[in-house]
Amino acid sequence: MPKFTLNDQVIEAEDxxxxxxxxxxxxxxxxxxxxHPDLPIDGxxxxxxxxxxxxPKLTPSCTAIATEGxxxxxxxxxxxxxxxxxxxxxxxxHPVDCPVCDQAGECRLxxxxxxxxxxxxxxxxxxxxRKRKVIDLGPMVVLDQERCVLCSRCIRFFDYxxxxxxMQFFGRGDHVAIGTFEDxxxxxxxxxxxxxxxPVGALTSRDFRFKCRVWFLHSTDSVCAGCxxxxxxxxxxxxxxxxxxxxxxxxxxxxxxxxxEGRLSFHELQTGERVVRPMIKGRDGIHAPVTWKDAxxxxxxxxKEVRDTNGSSSILGFGSPSATNESLFLLKxxxxxxxxxxxxxxxxxxxxxxxxxxxxxxxxxxxKHPNSMGAIKLGxxxxxxxxxxxxxxxxxxxxxxxxxxxxxxxxxxxxxxxxAEGRILELIDSLEYSVLLAAHKAEWHASASVVLPVAAxxxxxxxxxxxxGRVQLAGKAIEAGGDALPAWxxxxxxxxxxxxxxxxxxxxxxxxxxxxxxxxxxxxxxxxTRLPGVVLR
Amino acid sequence: xxxxxxxxxxxxxxxxxxYPEKRAALIPVLALAQREFGGWISQEVAEYVGELMGxxxxxxxxxxxxxxxxxxxxxxxxxxxxxxxxxxxxxGANACMDEAKKLLGVEAEEITSDGKFSWNFTECLASCGTxxxxxxxxxxxxxxxxxxxxxxxxxxxxx
Amino acid sequence: MTKIxxxxxxxxxxxxxxxxxxxxxxxxxxxxxxxxxSAIIDExxxxxxxxxxxxxxxxGMKWSFVPRNTGKPTYLLCxxxxxxxxxxxxxxxxxxxxxxLIEGMAIAAYALxxxxxxxxxxxxxxxxxxxxxxxxxxxxxxxxxxxSVLKRDFSxxxxxxxxxxxxxxxxxxxxxxxxxxxxxxxRIKPPFPATHGFLASxxxxxxxxxxxxxxxxxxxxxQAYAAIGTEKSKGTKLFSVSGHxxxxxxxEVDLGYPLLDFINNEAGGIPNGRKLKAVIPGGSSxxxxxxxxxxxxxxxxxxxxxxGSMLGSGGMIVLDDSVKMPEVLSVIADFYAHESCGQCTPCxxxxxxAGKVLRNLVAGKGTKADVDRLLKIADMMEGKTICPLxxxxxxxxxxxxxxxxxxxxxxxxx
Lengths: 537, 159, 414
Hints:
The complex is a heterotrimer of chains A (537), B (159) and C (414).
Chain A (H helix, E strand, L loop, with lengths): L2 E4 L2 E4 L6 H7 L23 E4 L6 E2 L10 E3 L3 H16 L15 H10 L17 E2 L4 E3 L9 H9 L6 E3 L6 E3 L13 H5 L5 E3 L12 E6 L8 E7 L2 E7 L12 H4 L1 H5 L9 E3 L5 E3 L2 H19 L4 E4 L6 H14 L4 E3 L5 H4 L17 H6 L10 H10 L4 E6 L9 H14 L2 E6 L11 E4 L8 E4 L4 E5 L12 H11 L9 H10 L17 E2 L2
Parallel strand pairs in A: 1-5, 16-17, 16-18, 18-19, 19-20
Antiparallel strand pairs in A: 1-2, 3-4, 3-5, 6-7, 7-10, 8-9, 11-12, 12-13, 14-15, 14-20, 21-22, 22-23
Chain B lengths: L5 H12 L8 H11 L6 H11 L3 H8 L13 E6 L2 H5 L2 H12 L12 E6 L11 E3 L2 E3 L4 H12 L2
Chain C lengths: L16 H6 L4 H7 L3 H11 L11 H6 L9 E7 L8 H8 L1 H15 L1 E8 L7 H13 L15 E6 L9 H8 L23 E5 H5 L1 H7 L1 H5 L9 E8 L5 E6 L2 E2 H8 L9 E5 L8 E2 L7 E2 L1 H6 L8 E6 L4 H15 L5 H18 L5 H14 L7 H15 L1 H6 L4
Parallel strand pairs in C: 1-2, 1-4, 2-3, 5-11
Antiparallel strand pairs in C: 5-6, 7-10, 8-9, 8-11
Helix pairs in contact in C: 2-6, 2-10, 3-6, 14-15, 14-17, 15-16, 16-17
């Protein structure tokens, strides 16, 4: 653990760390383009040059290993002049695209220019090297060769992370351009990542293109709900609309990467009609909207009737592997705690098997739900029922009369989703009395006795437990709309209606209760669920 | 679909045998492919070499575009590469280039209509003491003058 | 002058193995195989032989950096990528004395413990491909290469590897990268080729001329070699001289010989009654010297450095007083812009920009600010790149502009 000084500050580095890495860990940013903590080192941009005592030339801090007693300066005039020089070199052939470039506002040329540059351009526009612009590289990426600073991050990503080698340098000298073979579109489930890592506007997102200037966006930390990997994301949104997802770096889960499907999964969220009001099916078989108060009172009294008539074992709680831990916890507390129900399930599609099965070597898992592991850990599996098939059978046989079902549409679709949804419908049809908590409207909702509008992903705070058993906090970014509430709040109201304690004002409060109760979450704090999350024993 | 001839395949195997790792053979194989397939590396040639050696075509093309002698565009049967560097320039290379342009009637990198000639500038050929100089395939022509250019072009034309 | 390299290179047709052996060829290899490898390295150190490609690094010291017993093979790569403008000496050796090179390589390989070696020859020397392969075949046939060199317990394979046209591949890490089958991007050092070179194994890259000097050194001894030349620049050097001289060509000269004597005697002096204006002594990458600055300068590493230039590759270009220096610099700058590999920012952008500014100036469209701009670009590029190609552009730009500034300013209307 060598100790070295950077700008008179003593920093302790890990063995083998480069100066730039150690500086970054200590919160000091040395300007750079080609360096990336999750890619092999290249050392070509020459932006990270620092002064190292006793070395005659300036040293790239991304290649120099920090050693004991090293004295480094990144703030001297000599370094600033060198950095300014590199910046000027990068800008001489850079097109003046800022007004039409999506990168504006988060562009490293702009940002470093304001700190190190502030010089006047000394090259006439006609002298700039021209390259090709607006090259379609498929559904995720648009390439502008002129804007490229040739840092090679995208090349290294495809060479070393996906090992597919689509992007390469072509040519030599200042005519070198990046591209794909014959402009072939990127057919790679991780292609969107190169947009994130491109420090300039050479690779931009086709999905986000021209949609919103980044300085209008608000960011919320969350977790992707596309599969059981639970990649950490940053949700960029404005006035209730999500515009894009970016990865948050979590070296234990997803490093700096997201898969394309997960990255675009918010579109699924914002598609289709929503359930807006609680609705109860009348004697005429038609759903009529009611207030939450009425709905909750009706549900509680009806469930108590079923319990009193048929016994508590006739009540089923069917959670969703896309619901938060807080929602599932209170589902159990209400049905189990208040009504004595003992039959809980969540499996509509072998989620317990798929949760650990890798779909590829990089990020994705086969289970396209964020919280199957959370459902398992909270005990929503019944050895007796064995999944939804067993529940349907039991309902048909009459041993289960009533059920509370949470169903949230998957955000990353696969063949088989329709069948799974069909099974949920079958279950509801087989129940005498069914309460369905849903977010997006579907025709088959008509079969349920009660339909309650709940928040979907990004519309509520809550935790998910990923395939590693890691509990991670997903933040709320937008409002659910209509009368929709987080599912945990619905159960809190039901608990209150049934006469139990219901003190929770937020998902955080529910988590605190989970942490006090006899669950796998015992002893945890909500702070631990922030990056990098906490792994359950 | 293009493919190496039997002779080229033999050469290919021989090239591979010179190196402890296959990758090191890539550039000589590209040179072989260029000779075999019409004097330049087309997308098709890059794909073929990629398939032959097990590399993505983007990778192969990326390597090819770095090197001056691996051509990305077709050239004439005789491609005149005239040195434009210091010593040759001092001795009158520009006049030789102008003469080539005049006699052949094409700009640099363009091919004459009969497909026989093209020309371009090139960098130092290590003929500085005998310049101006040019390379045409595996031949050097040195001590050039505009008149000599004419003679050489004529003799190549009649070849 | 001592003839070590060019003793038999003045006539063509002397390059067969039979003719080579007739005049004592491969005897040095025989002697070397009877020595300890460490003894050979000591001998080369004691001779004071320095890298003849341009860097001038002491050869024996370079060899001594190679670790033994790493479990990895050691590679010897002969740098025959001669592309430095003004330089054509390696070509002569390759054409006239291929066996001298092969023998030198065999001696070096034995000293280094190398069993697989390559001659990386620039692709433009296509006309030498067959002749070099023939020479290698002759050597194999005569048992001088192969599983048992001169019937000893030492195996050596030498292969010819043709480059594909890139000046940068003369830089040793770029050469290695190119030999490995990639774009010729120079590598970050450390690690150095001595420990991590070709295929991550210990590697030595030596110039043709350096290797060709080894047989004489082994045959005649380090002392004999060190007796030639000056205190720090031992032995002989091949100078390729071209430009405005009566007798351009390759000459072998004892290091320490006066520069102006060389121009006036060996090179025959300036033709057409003109006067010497400037000399680029060691290839376009070294600073230019004004005629006045040549007084008393000797052709060795130290003297040229002291005079403000460098010995470099020994590719001397002589300029008479008819020459317009900005035009010459523009030709040089275009070269570096064309040959920059493009990997790192300062060289990629700086060489291109400097080339454009100079073309503008020469066309009469520049301003005095452009002249300062050239110096600024040079300062911005210098010392900040992965390899010295940018510095090789800086040297001519800075020296031409500072020493002939009035010519540059004369091109500017404002």
